[in-house]
Amino acid sequence: MGKAKYVEKKMITNNLINEKSPYLLQHAHNPVNWQSWRDEVFSLAKKENKPIFLSIGYATCHWCHVMEKESFEDAETAKYLNDTFICIKVDREERPDIDSVYMSVCHMLTGSGGWPLNIIMTPDKEPFFAATYIPKQNRFGRMGLIDLCLKIKELWHNDKERILESTKSINSALQTAFVFSSSNEKVDISILHKAYDEIHQSFDNTFGGFGSAPKFPTPHRIFFLNRYYKMTKNKDALDMIKKTLISMRLGGIWDHVGFGFHRYSTDKKWLLPHFEKMLYDQALLSIAYLETYQITKDEYFSQIAEEIFTYILRDMKSYNGAFFSAEDADSDGEEGKFYVWTFKELEQILDLKEFELIEKYFNIKKDGNFLDEAHGRKTYSNILYLSKPLNKNDYELFQTIRNKLFNYRNNRVHPLKDDKILTDWNGLMIAALAYASTVLNKKEYFIEAKNACSFILQNLKDKEGNLIHRFREGEATILGQVSDYAFLIWGLIELYKASFDIYYTELALDFQKKMIDKFWDKNNFGFFSTEENSELPVRPKEIYDGAIPSSNSVALSNLIYLARLTGNKEFENMANYLCTAFISTIEKNPSFYTHFLLGVDFMLAEDEGNMCNNFSCKLPPKIKEEKNE
């Protein structure tokens, strides 16, 4: 029966079948008549007089999988969706600009956000409903997807004026969602102290990290605290750094068998993660651990960074040297199945001495060491996590254990690997590897960064020198966005700092000038996320430093570095304009913008070689901003 059902599902094909995105291809056999985001699809919606159901997610998103299984693979639900809407699927990693605009709508309408992101809007792209995960049937006071279809269909055909009236107010709010109040006030060191105070107040003294559950790594906060400690010698700043980084490495958010960090922890103890692994987390966290190693000289931190690179170079590097985007939380239809262990499995795989070590240190239990919170029952599965670091002798034995477990686990059904190559995320990993080559004096990391950069330059740059966002299966497409330029420039700067090869500076300068030409807001300053001819109802501009730092934050440090390296006053002025554009917003809650504050710290540093965006080197002598003939 199961096999026949699988075959029947595979016989269904919708309009996503020719896409390259792994996320869109996951939905190519849904009975929902999915379309990709294209102008002709919106024309079709107008012709058929139907609203748009826009669903945004990504390939390694657990709750996206849940909603697909419950609703998008379900023939009954698909019938209602197809009857009511023109349905569009978007991969947020391919189109962060679309995600940014409609996520802001979700925050406006619901007060929160997340994925899957589901938007209902007119054929003119004017939204009037937003939600994240929607169950198939009504549940816990939340309207189910079938009833939502029925309700929207009734309103669309019988009370459309009510819908259009609501779109007016939402659109009005949307037009100001990316507008920031500028200020000519001079930025001073007080904003750094205020950000530190906010971070200190949110710090979890027991388990490390900031705030309560769910807990995200937020490596840019560690970057900020490292600089704050260097500036002030405030011991509490260093204690927060060490407590957080050590607790994360001990916890279940770390893959103790295969290495690498999962995306975030669902609990405050760093025990139970959502199991997806993202390229950007590995890049940014490796930098955080390396910076902390530079401050403390404790090789425990550099070892963790190298373990991250072991995972990346083993599992996430393509044959051509660039890096894949992510690995899924789910495998074999179950979240975390690839990563967890039963008590019996461990007894069978390990000898007695090895098993005793695992039982003693890694908190395993016969009935499992975490609960199925959704159903309030035992899982009989164990996530490996430590209460304290292993001593030297036990660590050596654990390497034998780890190899056994790795080889055993390797025979399980692996999570999906999202094998698209993104310019911006590769820029972050290039920066991390190049930085590591300097800090650890290991040329092999520089070579890996150089190879990835070469791939980007050869395959994700058009004839006019413009960046392209995504590469998969030989196809490079999607116009480069501001993050592609900002993050790749960061990577090029780190390659230059690691080698003093002027070639990388020349590239960084070229891309910086293109970034200014394409994305700079000439009226209100700052960088837009997209070029001016955007197909979206509003042109987004980001400053919040979330899981990934904003492009404006990264650009600030890039501009200052390039200005001081070359003497280019235009770049220095633009850095000042960035502060003018955003500082009023940042002053309200500076701890939300800690990567931007790295640039502020760099600007305020008396010694212009003090920061260099991180701790890898002092500025070399100024170079002329001209290419070698």
Structural domains: how many: 3
**What is the makeup of the main sheet?**
5 strands, mixed
CATH architecture of the largest domain: Alpha/alpha barrel
- CA-CA gap between termini: 69 Å
Strand tally: 17
The number of helical elements comes to 23
At the third CATH level, what is the topology name of the largest domain? Answer: Glycosyltransferase
Strand order of the largest sheet: 1-3-2-4-5
Highest-level CATH class of the largest domain? Mainly Alpha
Structural class assignment? alpha+beta
Could you say which overall geometry the principal axes of the C-alpha atoms support? Answer: globular
Radius of gyration: 25 Å
Concise summary:
The chain is an alpha+beta fold.
Structure in words:
- About 50% of the residues are buried.
- The protein folds into 3 domains: about 1-175, 3-Layer(aba) Sandwich (Glutaredoxin), CATH 3.40.30.10; about 190-330 and about 420-605, Glycosyltransferase, CATH 1.50.10.10; about 340-410, no CATH class.
- It contains 23 helices and 17 strands.
- The chain is globular.
- The longest helix is centred in the C-terminal third of the chain and has 20 residues, at about 570-590.
- A hairpin with a 2-residue loop joins β16 (about 470) and β17 (about 475-480).
- It has a 5-stranded mixed sheet, with helices on both faces. It has a 3-stranded antiparallel sheet with strand order 8-9-14. The chain has a 3-stranded antiparallel sheet with strand order 15-16-17.
- It is of the alpha+beta class and about 625 residues long.
- α10 runs antiparallel to α11, α10 packs parallel to α12 (about 280-295) and α21 (about 550-565) packs antiparallel against α22.
- Helix content is about 50%, strand content about 10%.
